[in-house]
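Bit of a strange request maybe. I'm writing a small parser for C-alpha cell strings and I need a real example to test against, not something I typed by hand. Could someone generate the C-alpha cells for this chain?
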Amino acid sequence: MMVDITINNVETSVPDGTTILEAAKSLGVHIPTLCHLDLHDIKMVNRVGTCRVCMVEVDGRRNLLPSCSTTVSPGMKVYTNTKRAVSARRQIVELLLSNHPKECLSCERNQNCELQALAAELGIREIHFKGPRLKTEKDSSSYSIVKNFEKCVLCRRCETMCNEIQTVGVYSPVHRGFDTVMGTAFDRKMLDTNCTFCGQCVSVCPTAALTETDDTSKVWDAINDPDKIVIAQTAPAIRVALGEPFGLPVGTRVTGKMVSALRKIGFDKVMDTDFAADLTIMEEASELIHRIRHGGRLPILTSCCPAWVKFIEHQFPTLLDIPSTCKSPHEMFGAIAKTYLADKLGVAADKIVVVSIMPCLAKKFEAKRDELSGKTSGSDVDYVVSTRELARMIREAGINFVNLQDEDFDDVMGESTGASVIFGTTGGVIEAAVRTAAAWLDKDNPNPEIDFTQLRGLEGVREAEVEIAGMKLNIAIAHGLGNARNLLTQIRDGNVKYHAIEIMACPSGCVGGGGQPYHGNNIETLKKRAAAIYKEDEAKTVRRSHENLQIKKLYDEFLGEPYGEKAHELLHTHFSARDIL
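Reply from user aminoacidic:
Good idea to test on real output. This should exercise your parser:
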C-alpha cells in the first residue's frame, strides 16, 4: 500500500510503514541525524529516537516529531527546515555539547566525529547552556577497546549493534536522568564481560566514546630501539581499505604503497600475513582431511577469527571440540618469525618484535591470550595495530601515501597465493581450504577446481555442497555473531549436519572489521572491498596455498609434515570454556 504525503510542499508517495526520514531521503531532502543507524544489509535500523536531532514539523501536530521513528500517514504534510525545527536541532546539539569534553584537538575522532560534523553543519559557534558535566571512569582494561563514556551521546547504536546484531549483550543504559550512561552489567570492566572485542560497537559509535586501544606509541618505541628487529605483517583486508583515509576510491588495492609506507615508517622487515594464511590452510585442510578419514568430530569450524572464538567460549562451551585447533594466521606468523626466521637471521628470538597490522580489534586481545605465548620468547605477536592506527602513523611520519611507488614484501615470509588473499572476506577461508583439500583428495585430476563461487556471497548464513573426488562436502558460512549464534544453536541441537563451517564475527568478514576505516556498515563499501579482494586473488600466479614455494620450503627445512608434531607445537592451540558474565 502506498501513502501520499507532502514534504516541504513537494508531493510524493511512499510505502506504508516508511518513516519520515526515509521518505525525505527518497526526495533528496537532508535531515540531520545522530542516533540513527541504518543497516540495510542486515535488516536492522536503530530507531530509538533518543537524540532528537532529526526533529521536523508536521501540520496538525502540536509538538515536533522525530523523523527517524515516526511513520508516515495519509495526507501528512511535513516541513523539515522551518525556523522551529532548525532551532530545536541547534538547541539539542548545544545541550549535547554542554555535557561533552572540550578536547576536540586531542580527541581520537577529531575531524572524523559525527557530533563535531553536526555542530559544524548547524553553524554552532557558542554553547549557551552552562552546568556540570557527567564524569565517568575510562576503561581500557580489555587490550582492544577503550570505553570513555564521558563522550557518549546516548545514541544507543552500540546497544543495537551488540545486543541485536551481534547478540553478545554487553551494553545497556544504566542509572537515570542526567546520570544515565551506556554501561555494562554491574559496572564490570570490559575485560570481565562477555565482550568478544569484535569492535563493531566502535565502528558505529559516532563519537570517541568507544575507540580502539592505541598501540602506536609502543610500536614507535620498538622501531627506534637499535637492539630490536621490528617486523610488520599485514592482513589481506588492509590492502583494500588503507587507501580510503588518504582519499583513494573505496576498493582501491594499495598493496605496494602499503609496503613502501611501512618501510618508510622504519620497520626492518615488511612481510605478509597472507604467507601465514597459506600456512593456516596447510594445517586446517590437513586437519579436515584427518577428521574425515579417521571419524573425527565434524563439522570442523575455522578458527581464524578471535572474536567468534571468544564468543563460542562464552556462549557454546559444549561445542569447543569442533573448532580447528589452528592458531589464526598472524599468530602462526609470529610463532614462525620467532623460531624459523630468527634462525635464518641469526638473532635471538627476544630481539624480534612482531607487529601485526590488522583490520580487527579482537586481534589485540588475542595477542595477549596465555595460550598464545611463544615457546621461546614472550608472546607470538608483540603488538597489534589497526588499519586506522596505521593510517595515523603514516600521517604522523609525514608520508605522502598516494604518491608512493609500489614495493614488494621481503623474501622468506613474503610470498603468498590467491587463496590467502581471500581470507579477507566472508567465505574466503573455507574456499581457500577447499581449494587445497580438493587438490589433495583428487590427485588424479590434473586441473582441480579453483573457484568455488558457491561459497561466496553476503547472505548472513549460507550453505553449499562441494563435490571433491566423488565425496560431497556440506559447508556452511556465517558472518556476524547473531548469524553465528543461529547456526551454532542448530548444530548444538543436532538439527543440521555439515563437514566444515566458516564463521566471521564481523559483517562481511574482515573487510568490515572493527579496526577498518569507519564505513557506517555501508553495504556498498563492503562489497567494493570484497570485490577488490577477489581481484587480487585473480591476479595471483599461484592460487592454492599448498603450491606456495616458500611454504613448501618451510615444511622441508623446519616443520616436517603438515599437521605433524612440530606443526602442532608451534601452529596449534586450544580453547577454554568461559562463564557467561
